[in-house]
Amino acid sequence: MYKTLVIVSLLLSFSGHCADEKDVLKTIKKFGKELKKELKKGLKKSATEAIKVCHMKAPEITLKNSNEKIQIGRVSLKNRNPNNVPKEWMLSYIDDFYRSGNKTGYKIVDLGEKKGLLKPIVTMPLCLKCHGTEISEEVVKEISAKYPNDKATGYKTGEIRGFFWAIYTPTKPKKE
Ligand code: HEC
Question: What is this structure's pTM?
Fold first, then answer.
């Protein structure tokens, strides 16, 4: 009986329109994993094939991982996809991440009724083929065909490539 009650109350708390930090971090982790899986699948064929996959799948995976509780996405000051320009509320926090050199933490931002979360995405060797300083001619061609205003190159391993972001309604709204 007690067990049933616990399960029911757990289900109820998950089915509301609220989320907490842990849910958001979990959602972002899952999102990142799915992106990387598709990327690696594409790279097995070729870098140009992987660009096609990212071009098609990244926006789709982003939408799929957003719901009524948590909206998520990726942004960068040097974005590839024109939709990935940071929003106004993100700018000063992005600046803080660069200034402090903090690449492993995350930041919760108060947005009134909602909260925002930003988490740096760090460049790894795997990323350099399409975001690095020496990019093959065929990759450049494929990228500029799909993203004529691409800014997302010139990165080195360990640098911040961009940020995961989330907006969510916290489970316990702040009392005035
Ligand atoms: C095969 C080429 C390729 C590789 C390798 C690659 N990316 Fe990308 N990346 C892309 C493409 C294409 C987009 C644009 C996707 C879209 O249209 O939403 C992108 C977009 C992004 C974005 C969203 C911001 C923006 O610029 O639009 C981030 C962040 C990002 N990549 C990080 C990484 C990281 C970190 C790695 C390594 C783990 C990586 N990428 C590896 C091709 C690549």
Answer: 0.90
